[in-house]
Amino acid sequence: xxxxxxxxxxxxxxxxxxxxxxxxxxxxxxxxxxxxxxxxxxxxxxxxxxxxxxxxxxxxxxxxxxxxxxxxxxxxxxxxxxxxxxxxxxxxxxxxxxxxxxxxxxxxxxxxxxxxxxxxxxxxxxxxxxxxxxxxxxxxxxxxxxxxxxxxxxxxxxxxxxxxxxxxxxxxxxxxxxxxxxxxxxxxxxxxxxxxxxxxxxxxxxxxxxxxxxxxxxxxxxxxxxxxxxxxxxxxxxxxxxxxxxxxxxxxxxxxxxxxxxxxxxxxxxxxxxxxxxxxxxxxxxxxxxxxxxxxxxxxxxxxxxxxxxxxxxxxxxxxxxxxxxxxxxxxxxxxxxxxxxxxxxx
Length: 347
Description:
Largest sheet: 4 strands, mixed
CATH architecture of the largest domain: Alpha Horseshoe
Mean pLDDT: 88
Strand content: 5-15%
Distance between the termini: 37 Å
Number of helices: 14
Number of domains: 3
Number of strands: 9
Order of helices and strands: EHEEHEEEHHHHEEEHHHHHHHH
Low-confidence stretches: 78-88
CATH class of the largest domain: Mainly Alpha
C-alpha cells in the first residue's frame, strides 16, 4: 500500500500454505479471488473487488474507478462540511493566509477555512477577489465599482458607499478566522494588508510551471508539473467565470492548464508510466472534457495497461464528447501510435 502497488490474487488457494492467516480471512469472507488498488492519494487502505467475474488479471480499470471515486468523495465532503477546518502546509503562523481561486474561492488561515458560501454576499466576494487578483496598488471605491459593474449608472457617493458596505461585510466574516484584516483602507483606496503573508494557488501554479521549465532533470520536471496540475480544480472564481472583469484571466489559466497537462501526459508516456498517464488524463477530462489530447492519452495508456475493452469504451465516450472533426483527428493520432491497433478499438 505504501508503495502504491496493486494486488491481484486470481485464486486464494495459492497463498494457503504461504500465509494461512490471510487465507483464513479470505475464506471467512467467501473470497475466492480479488483485485485491490491503493485508495489514492496518500493511501490508507485499498479499494477491493471480491470475486471479480472479468478483468481478473488486470487492475487498471479498478485504478481508474478508484480515482473517480476519490474525487467524488472529496467533493461531497467539501459540500457537506459546514464547519471551519484547519489548513496546514502553507499556513504556519497567524499571519499566513492561503487563498484558493481555482474552482470555488477559499480563504485559509491558521484558525480555519472560509469558502465563498460563508460570505453570504456574491458582491462582497467579487470585490475582494478583484482586490486580491490585482494586488500591486490601492483601488479607489469608484474604480472597483466601475470595473465590476460598468453597466450600472450610480452616483459616485452611492458607489463608494456600496463598496464600503461590501468590504465591511467581508471583514466581519474574515474576522472569524484571522485577528488581522485582509483588506486595508488607505487614503488612495483599498488594498491587501502588507503585514500578512498572502499566497494564492494561482501564484503557486505559476511558480511551479516556471520551476518545471527550469528543471534540470526529467523526474524533477514531471514532479513539478504534477503539483501544478493538482492545484487546478476548475476555472478561476467559478461563480463569476463568464463576467467581463475576470474572463481574460479565466481564459489565460484555462489555456495554461491545457498546455501543462498535455505536456505532462506526453512526458509520462515517454518514461512509460502508463498508470500515471491514465490518472492524469482522467483529471484533464474531468475539467476539460473536450481536451482531445487527454482522450488520446487515456485510450493509449488504458490499452498499454492491458485493457482493450475499457480502451474501446473510452474511444466511444470520446466520440460522444468531441465534434466529428475532433474525433477524426483523434483517430488519426491513434492510427499513428505504434502498438495501438485502431482497427481493434473500432471493431
